[in-house]
Inverse folding.
């Protein structure tokens, strides 16, 4: 049975009204900041499940791009979505293998939260309806493969990471940071920051700490906002661009 955009659901909340309220406010605040601060770059999502957050991001792009009289300068932005549509990969990394969500609850098991059939086609149709034939992409496959075969090459102003696993989050963050794709002031939205009982040894908390440490002081981050019980948004700072060593 084919679904419509109105039938797309969110995996974190059974109450879709609550999901729309929480994500809608957080995403809108991120857009207000990025557009108001004139930060260049595209909007990228890693992990989309049924496309709930994808369509929220797409609608905000349409809305904010139309506000030409309010924002003095608006950069061209694309929307790029990466997902396997097959659910979680097998947890081969030891950090994930011993994490609460894998070894205790078992919720992040292989192929869990696979996208319903037709999700990729639905997203392609909805994005084409909003943006036409260009300025967007839906890339199917595991991050470790698609970030090689279809790497991001343009600046990224907002990255929504719904990667869940530590290993998947590392693959994405290392790509963004290692290729210096995040301009100063970019926003990282981390959907699963408080998963694994918010323990810093696991998941996105550990991935953020380790991946930013690997930039050798070129990048740093600070908290922007919190959303729901699970999400955290961060500002990204490019300290390596500063001519003053004391600011690095």
């Amino acid at each position: 049975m084919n679904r419509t955009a109105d039938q797309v659901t969110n995996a974190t909340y059974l109450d879709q009204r609550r999901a729309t309220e929480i994500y809608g406010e957080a995403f809108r605040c991120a857009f207000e900041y990025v557009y108001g601060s004139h930060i260049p770059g595209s909007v990228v999502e890693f992990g989309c499940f049924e496309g709930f957050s994808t369509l929220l991001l797409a609608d905000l792009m349409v809305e904010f791009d139309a506000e030409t009289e309010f924002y003095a300068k608006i950069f061209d932005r694309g929307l790029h979505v990466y997902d396997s549509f097959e659910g979680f990969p097998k947890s081969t990394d030891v950090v994930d293998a011993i994490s609460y969500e894998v070894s205790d609850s078992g919720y992040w098991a292989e192929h869990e939260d696979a996208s319903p059939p037709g999700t990729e086609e639905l997203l392609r149709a909805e994005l084409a309806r909003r943006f036409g034939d260009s300025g967007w992409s839906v890339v199917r496959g595991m991050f470790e493969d698609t970030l090689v075969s279809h790497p991001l090459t343009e600046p990224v102003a907002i990255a929504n990471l719904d990667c869940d696993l530590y290993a998947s989050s590392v693959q994405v963050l290392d790509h963004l940071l290692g290729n210096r794709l995040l301009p100063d002031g970019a926003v990282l939205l981390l959907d699963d920051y408080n998963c694994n009982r918010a323990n810093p040894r696991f998941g996105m908390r550990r991935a953020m700490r380790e991946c930013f440490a690997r930039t050798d002081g070129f990048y740093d981050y600070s908290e922007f906002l919190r959303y729901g019980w699970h999400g955290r948004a961060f500002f990204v700072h490019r300290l390596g661009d500063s001519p003053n060593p004391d600011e690095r």
Residues 44 and 80 are 5 Å apart (CA to CA).
